[in-house]
Amino acid sequence: MSNFQSVKSPKIKPGKRAFVNSPFPWLLPLGLILTFVFVYPIFEIIRLSFTDASLLGSDYSYTTESYGRLFGQSEFFSMLLITAIFVSFSVVFQLFFGFIIAFLIDQGQKLDLKGTVIVRTSVLTAWAIPGVIIGIIWRVMYTETEVGIFNSLVGMMGMDLIPFLSDPTIALISVIVANVWRGTAFSMILIYAAIQTLPNDVMEAAKIDGANGLQRLFKVMLPMLAPIILVTLIIISIDTFNTFDMVMALTGGGPGQSTEVIALSIYTTIFREFNLGQGAATSVVLLSINVIMTLVYLKILGRQGEK
Amino acid sequence: MSHHNKTLVKKIGIYFSYAVITLFFLFPLLWIISMSFKTSQELFAIPPTLMPETFAFENYRYVLETTGVVNYLKNSAIIVFFTVIFTLLVSVPAAYALSRFKFKLKVPILITVLMTQMISAVVISIPLYRLFSNWNLLNNYIVLIIVYVSVVLPLATWFLKGYFDTIPAVLDEAATIDGANRWQFITKILFPTSMPGIVSVTILVAVQSWSQFVIPFILLDDESLYPVSVGVMNLQSTQQAVTTHYLAAGSVISVIPVIILFVVFQRLIVGALTSGAVKG
């Protein structure tokens, strides 16, 4: 790749040229910043997870009690369950709607329909809005009296008003719906890009062979899109596991702890209960999830690269 | 059914689905805009009015004059501006090295950079909070911006590396034959040809940093330094049902900059996201 070793530049001393021709000076600022902001905090959070530290005091001793207490609590497992429900439903519906919208936009473009850009832009706008604002907007729409837009529609249909944010189960569904609204754009755009790269002749050949629309979709298109769908699935899963801002603004984790996903639980444990040791232990759990999913992602990418 | 009719039915079906999708995704936004123009009486109308009866622009005046929103916007602008500059200063050389040099550690470095992208901001903010409070660096924009930069760096570096890879090595050779050194190659050839990529990264970084919440939420506790995301959150906690129209106006004000940026550069952003995605 590098063609600069042979350059004879009399102005630059040999030592200086060697310096410029090594990749490491170029990477130094990146390395320093990532070490400071990621490597140090990761080691620190693992260390803190083996202590009984409090956010307020500076004295602590080393212990594995944080983990013991964490795994001994039924709250911890119900929090994990809530997180798992939140992540799996969000991800499945984001992928599902993302695929459908990408497919429809692609079909529309092939038929030269107008308005594909408007559809794409309106979906993407949801993705560009800060999570906190999304939480606020949906909170306003979920207002539980007939003043709220959703409940006024419910009332018009003659049904009982729905406690969107005060019933534990419904609140979790409400949070998932808002999150699907927010995240569908990302899946859509990745799948849309992948559809663009599909070879046209394969689809045409299937058509000539007499495959109908549905057969072409399920037997030809989906198998070809499978790798990118898998990659998208992992990226959005990691993202959803890390969700904090939208839920914070929408429910604050409530009612009770019924929408307290793992990132929110870490925040509450440390900054509301000042229990640094246990919050750090929960962080290590989230960190492990992040790392495992990234390894799976790399494995899939590696496999694709070999092809 | 004739082929022509079949296509027509298909077209109508697709248009119908477009209407449903657009309505679903734009409605929440239109609703909050509508709320932001309602008077306090109209907030409690049953059924709620879709369009405000009269446009109460005074809601915006009230929010701009009595809440800290203007200050939050200014803070966000400062933070985002410097985040973009520093991100480019760090990611461009790194991406250049990862694209143009051959060395053993290249793949491990690329993977490590990707790994950092996947780590929760809440997790890293906690040790940083402790560190900064010990060193009296909470509420300090310089360290705050460094943390902002690090969060967007992986994406920026990977994206720019991908973009530089698409610039043919032939150009490097031509430059070498013409006697240009590395620095001249970068400023005279690589930069101009990569401009679309650099602009895309700038927009992506700006949109992401504008939305950033966890980091300022944890690392700032002086209200006068809050960016809009944290500021509006703060506004929400102090508002009641009777002031929803103010909260709505505040929300609209805080998303206007990103939405303008986004709609104007929509094509570039889609291009950026998709080209990055295809390469993985």
List the helices and strands and how they pair.
The complex is a heterodimer of chains A (307) and B (280).
Chain A: H1 14-20, H2 24-49, H3 65-72, H4 74-110, H5 116-128, H6 131-141, H7 149-156, H8 168-197, H9 200-208, H10 213-241, H11 245-250, H12 262-272, H13 276-306
Helix pairs in contact in A: 2-13, 3-13, 4-5, 4-8, 4-10, 5-8, 8-10, 9-10, 10-13, 12-13
Chain B: H1 3-36, H2 58-66, H3 69-100, H4 106-117, H5 121-134, H6 141-165, H7 169-177, H8 182-211, H9 214-219, H10 228-238, H11 244-264, H12 266-279
Helix pairs in contact in B: 1-11, 2-11, 3-6, 3-8, 3-10, 4-6, 6-8, 6-12, 7-8, 8-12, 10-11
Could you please describe the fold and organization of this structure?
- The complex is a heterodimer of chains A (307) and B (280).
- Chain A is built from 13 helices and no strands.
- Chain A is mainly alpha-helical.
- In chain B, 78% of the residues lie in helices and 0% in strands.
- The radius of gyration of chain B is 24 Å and the shape is globular.
- The chains are: A mainly alpha (307), B mainly alpha (280).
- At the A-B interface, helix 2, helix 4, helix 5, helix 6 and helix 7 of A face helix 1, helix 3, helix 4, helix 5 and helix 6 of B.
